[in-house]
Structure formats: structure tokens, C-alpha cells
Design brief:
Length: about 260
Amino acid sequence: MNRTVICFDGVGTNGRTAGSVLAPTADRLATKIGADTRWFPWGGSTMLGMGGGGTWADNSRQGVQSLVEWMDANPGQHIVLMSFSGGSKPAHDFLDQHPRFHDRVLGAGFLSDPWRPRDRWQTGLPYPGGWGICGENYTPISDRAWWTAVPGDVIPNAQPDSLLRYFADVSYGGPDQMITEAIRAFQQGRFQLAAHLGLPLHERIFGLGRRINDASTAVHQYLNGWHTRHYHGPVDTGGGDHRSLSDRLADSVAWGVNRRYP
């Protein structure tokens, strides 16, 4: 069986780039399942800041179309989908919109998924809290999909009442644009912010200060490694196991693929 690890990296990338958060995960997985890797540029390189290079949806559509064309041109190829952050949208869209390829998808791994379901995280690790900032999507192949999330990374772990969810609802950009818009909005007074977000009256009065503090902390953590380098730091789960979350995700996906398709 010919196997390829298909990679959709985050916003600000153009295929495989130096310092990629996803690359160590994809490389480790490919080695363990005997696959090569293929990186699909999807327009994410133009979306930094305020997303002047097109909407998240439009750029995702570009990446999905490229993958569909490649799948049609390589009918004997089976794939494992791997994505990070903003690259999770083309991965989800491909699975949601093209069921004819499901029998050729051996598995999927999501690193900091904006749609992480609330009950999906790495076995043996503490509950990271919340769920994806954009909602929840188990994918149509949930029996062979895995997620990992750093506690404190708001993109996969937003709390139910997080103010940042409002930015996810109204933003046309990916995670970076949501955070950029949040920073600008937080510079307003609390009642101007509440009006900007369209909060109902009772939410403007009760508990807003705590929610602003929580959102500010989440933005600080996003900008200071919780969304990137913390995925590659050692995690001690006892017994001498210090694998990073990135490595654990690769190992989980490899275990599932090799068990199902020996």
C-alpha cells in the first residue's frame, strides 16, 4: 500500500517552511508508517496580520482543490492527513466535502485544531479544557482521527464563554487574524468592547471583567509560545516518558494506522 502523509501547515506558511510547527510531527509519523510526506500550499502564507491575501475559506478551497486533483491523479495512493492550526480548515473541508476519498484516508492528526471536540485529546494527559475556538468537528472519520492540544492554547481549548469566540464568529481570517482583531478591540473601554462584540445587556454588566482578563491571558499565551513551541517541549507523564505533544500525536496516529492497516 502506497502511503503519503499530507500536510496542511498553519497561517504564514507556504508548503514546508523552516521552523514549521507541524514538520517534526509529520516526519516522525512518516518514518513510523513507511510513508513519504507531501506539503500542500493553501494560501496560508498570505494571511498574516489582517488577512490581505484572501479569506480563510477561499484559501482553504484552493488547498482542497489541489489535494482533490492530486488524489484523482494518483488513484493507488493512500493518505494520512496532518494539520496545524489554520491548516486544519482545508483538512476538515476535504474530509467533509469529499466522502468519495474516505476509503483512501488511513487517518488524520490535528495539532492545535480550532475545531477540536471537547472530549478529544491525547490519552494519558490532563484534560486541556474547553474546545476549539471555532466550534467542534469530529470529522466523518472520527474512528481514525486524533487531536492534541497544549493547555492554555486558546485555539483548540477556548472556554465556553470566551470572548475570543466572538472574534472567531465574525472574522474572515484564520487564528492570527482573530488574535489581531482581539488585541485591537481590547484597546477600547469595556462597554465599547461589549458593544463591538454585540454582547446582550446582561453580559455587559455581569462577569465581563473576568472574561476580559481571561481573554487577555489567552492572547498573551498565544503570542508567547503556547500555540507553537510548547508543542515540542518535554511532557513528563511518569515512567521516564518525556515525549512532547507533537511526538505523542505522531505516535498515536502511527499506532492507529499500523494496527488497522498492517
